[in-house]
Specification:
Layout: H1 2-26, H2 34-38, H3 47-66, H4 76-96, H5 99-110, H6 113-124, H7 128-155, H8 158-161, H9 178-204
């Protein structure tokens, strides 16, 4: 029962965050336009973007601390690495003003989370057929958002568009702070590919 309640509660929280992110991004013209993440930098960050950022940062910071108090899973090291990398990306991108790219990173990593928790909820409730359906939806969502959209619209165009016309790395005079963000994004991509492989293997069984 406790596992069901935990999964259901997480499903609700993740769903609210994801729906909020989808709504906020639907109001912006630069979504899935990598060049515009940096064009005209620095940008003014709206109240709603800040709100979504704070929710996302708080969520991953909480998960990073909480994971040390939960029963350790087989992918404990990967999860800690993922949470550390995400917190660094969110913190530095906010401080340096790369909030457009940061919001996209957050949204693409949010989309599959509530679906997975819904699938877990059905497992704990003894509804295996519904659990299998939602796990299938989760698998497709994960592979599309994290293993396709994330590298194509974030990781690959990152270095190309994050420079000024004279080739200097943004932000001018502080470009060296950008490289930890890039490094963490590459780490996230490696983890996404690793988990994508596991998800695909489980789904095929």
């Amino acid at each position: 029962r406790l596992k069901f309640q935990t999964a259901a509660w997480r499903a609700i929280l993740y769903s609210i965050s994801t729906v909020l992110g989808l709504y906020i991004c639907s109001q912006e013209s630069w979504v899935f336009q990598p060049k515009q993440y940096f064009e005209g930098y620095p940008h003014k960050t709206t109240f709603w973007l800040k709100l979504y950022y704070n929710i996302g940062f708080g969520n991953y910071a909480y998960q990073l601390v909480n994971i040390f108090f939960e029963r350790r899973q087989s992918d404990f090291v990967q999860m800690v690495t993922h949470h550390v990398a995400t917190v660094i990306v969110m913190l530095l991108s906010y401080v340096l003003g790369f909030t457009r790219a940061g919001v996209m990173v957050l949204l693409l990593h949010d989309c599959s989370d509530p679906i997975m928790e819904i699938a877990k909820s059905f497992v704990y409730a003894g509804k295996q057929m519904l659990a299998d359906v939602f796990f299938g939806i989760f698998a497709i969502t994960f592979l599309v958002t994290r293993d396709y959209l994330f590298p194509v619209f974030i990781v690959i165009p990152l270095m190309r568009y994050s420079k000024y016309e004279d080739g200097v790395q943004m932000p001018r005079g502080y470009g060296h702070y950008f490289y930890p963000i890039a490094g963490c994004l590459y780490i996230l991509q490696v983890l996404n590919v690793f988990w994508g492989y596991l998800v695909s293997r489980i789904r095929m069984q």
